[in-house]
Amino acid sequence: MMMTRCFGAWLVLVCACGATAAHAQTYPMRPITLTVTAAAGGVTDVVARALGQRLSQAWGQQVVIENKGGAAHVVGAQSVAKANPDGYSLLVAEAGTFVINPTLYGKGKLPYDEEKDFAPITGIVRINQALLGNPSLPAKSVSELIGLAKAKPGELTYGTAGIGSAPHMNMVLFESMAGVKLVPVHYRGAAPALTDVMAGHVNLMSVSVSLALPPFRTGQIRIFGIGSDKRLGPAADVPTVAENGLPGYEAVTWFGLFATAGTPREIVMKINGEVGKILADPDFREKFLAPQMFEPMASSPEEFSDYIKGQTRKWAKVIHEQGLSIDK
């Protein structure tokens, strides 16, 4: 009797493993939805569409991009957290979704659990941010900007892509390190915020270098510095924020790919492997990554998960020091 039961349990386990492996081999058999936690036109959207196009070509299935911006990435993340764990609903999310929101909102106040509801698949790209402002500002360097902000505490404004977004938190980091007080103006994405900086409705912003360079070259904005540890090739004439007045300052963000928790490991690894091939492809790097100044950050799911945990600890410290929170 005991042997029969053990054999039966073993047989069920073997069948289940076989079914999972078979699903992974045939995946995907229908269109995949890539949910983006930001408005169309921003960097997150650009990254998702480039990745979706290549995945569609590789697998012969349509990849639908679904923009669900606003609410500090919560709306888009929640939709994938509650989706079926079958690999057909994926999330392209900015760092803030996972490393900022949990601390900013407080434990249990988000409609999803960032650790339990998602399966990290891989990092996609890391992006350096530019500190910029409207040319009418009477400051031409980071040092002069800090002096201006100290002379006018609480008067200078900056645009964000939403509470907890990279444009928000990198300016919070700037405030913390420079010892100044600025006023945030929150938008549903980076693109509309940048438009208002160019129009003079908002004074400052931190945004990806690729979005900042075109209006900078035409004189519509002033770039005070780039938040990288060294000058970037396509923008070698622009100093870093560190060398232009605020030593030690770095402003970057990253984007990653996630599935719903419970998605079979074999499917997660199949997606991971395909994204790794795309990011390593010389043609993709030359035509997409290099012009945008994106740095590829493909990794195993475990490495990506550990990276997220380290970033969460870093930003939790900044958030607590600044006394930031969202009372929901």
Tell me the helix content. Answer: 40-55%
* Biggest β-sheet description: 10 strands, mixed
User: What's the number of helices?
Assistant: 12
Strand content: 15-25%
Order of helices and strands: HEHEHEHHEHEHEHEHEEHHEH
Tell me how many strands there are. Answer: 10
Coarse morphology: globular
End-to-end Cα distance, whole Å, is 56 Å
Low-confidence stretches: none
Descriptors for this entry?
328 residues, alpha/beta, ten-stranded mixed beta sheet, 19% strand, globular
Overall description:
The chain has helices at residues 2-26, 43-59, 74-81, 96-99, 101-105, 142-151, 166-178, 190-199, 209-217, 265-280, 282-292, 301-322; strands at residues 32-36, 63-67, 89-94, 118-133, 157-160, 183-186, 204-208, 222-226, 252-260, 294-296. The longest helix has 25 residues, at 2-26. The protein is globular and about 60 Å long. The protein has 328 residues and is of the alpha/beta class.
